[in-house]
Amino acid sequence: MTRIRSIRWLAALALACLLPAFSHTAAAQAGGDVAPDALVRARSAVVGVLVAATEGARSAETLGERRGGSGVVIGADGLILTIGYLLLEADRVGVVTQDGRTLPARAVAYDLATGFGLVRTLVPLPGIEPVPLGSVAGLETGEPLLVAVGGVRAEVALTRVVSRRPFSGYWEYHIDSALFTSPPNGNHSGAPVFNRRGELLGIGSLFVADALGDGKRMPGNMYLPVDLLKPILAELQASGTTSSSRRAWIGVNAAEQGGRVQVVRITKDSPAQDAGLAPGDVVAAVDGVPVDSLERFYKKLWERPNPDDEVRLTVRRGDAERQVTLRAVDRMSTMKKPAGI
Predict the structure, then answer these.
(1) pLDDT recorded at residue 230
(2) Which of 11, 135, 230, 302 is the most exposed place for a label (fewest CB within 10 A)?
């Protein structure tokens, strides 16, 4: 993609968002496969998502009791895709439309394995067409995309693809494919990102400092690709979660440093706390198998058939090494289930 063609694509995307009457002919003259009508329809399907956590929610310590983000309509029955952490231990859910109405909604699903969340309005959403699901396969580095934010802070912004790669989070989380973009959007939680054909590519999850993933500082956002949603969507709607989400959890926040997995925080009342783990400990092996990355650490934990099985960790503290045996738990069993799921 030449620089001039890329600039023209960006201009066409911006015009498509700001001028509904902008024609396909004008988009073609702008030098790209831009579908302005589709982009306008996609933007109209973006909503705000407001959540009040249930009283005593464990997740309130990190996520707050009241949360706000975005979502996008993907079903004719009012089904909305958002980021799952907004829905953790939700008591009340509201959806904010573009005309300023707040509609009651209920949580439909939360998938711990991927991080997706689903909500559905309790009243119809007339005039809003569900967005088509696209794919991140074939995206090129530098390709322009459109990010849309719903609710009281509704806005659209342009961003670019900077990388696609696996992602491991410090909170016992890993996905094999994530989409990274830059420049970042501060209101990224649940914000949908679209390609120039108005197809949904992903849902905003995080702000990251290393969008490139090569150690060089580049602020950006991480998106959950809809490619991860397609195989599990039916299961999520039927059961409220997926079988992959039933996995072992021990309650550590960890960082990967020079081929070592180091504990940086212990969750209160977790198996790790009960076993005496502490910040600074290095997890060298799980069940006797060496682990040198967060991905290997997590996947070794998750491979056991029962999430509450015993886990044997080889832990280094200073110059001393010891064996620690603890009983993991199913993470979702420690959280209060949102009303509706």
Answers:
(1) 98
(2) 230
| 250/268 Cα distance (integer angstroms) | 11
Coil, strand or helix at 316 = strand
Q: Can you state the angle between helices 36-44 and 3-18, rounded to 10 degrees?
A: 50
Cβ(88)–Cβ(335) below 8 Å:
yes
pLDDT band at residue 28 under the 50/70/90 scheme: very low
Q: Cα–Cα distance between 36 and 297 in angstroms, integer?
A: 45
Alpha-carbon dihedral of residues 171, 175, 178, 184, nearest 10 degrees? -10
How far is 97 from 151, CA to CA, in rounded Å?
7
| Neighbouring residues of 196: CB distance < 8 A, sequence distance ≥ 6 | 9, 12, 13, 32, 33, 34, 35, 39, 144, 145, 146
DSSP 341: -
Provide the 10 A C-beta neighbour count for residue 314.
Answer: 18
**Whose CA is closest to 89, among 339, 340, 338?**
338
Residue 75's alpha-carbon distances to 84, 118, 126, in angstroms, are 17, 10, 12
Q: What is the pLDDT of residue 9?
A: 52
Q: Beta strand 66-73 with 46-53: parallel, antiparallel or unpaired? A: antiparallel
Contact (Cβ atoms closer than 8 angstroms) between residue 144 and residue 157: no
CA 16/CA 39 separation, integer angstroms:
6
Determine the average pLDDT of the residues in 243-254: 96
The neighbour count for residue 306, using CB atoms within 10 Å, is 11
The encoded tokens of residue 52 equal: 């009040």
283-303 core/surface letters (b: 16 or more CB in 10 A; e: else)? bbbbeeeebeebbbbbbbbbe
Q: What angle do CA 331, 92, 62 make, to 5 degrees?
A: 45
Percent of the chain at pLDDT exceeding 90: 76
User: Other C-beta atoms within 10 Å of 259: how many?
Assistant: 9
Report the C-alpha gap between 23 and 85 in whole angstroms: 38
Q: Which value, in Å, is the radius of gyration of the alpha carbons in the chain?
A: 21
Residue-wise pLDDT for 57-105, tens only, equals: 888 888 999 999 999 999 999 999 999 999 999 999 999 999 889 999 9
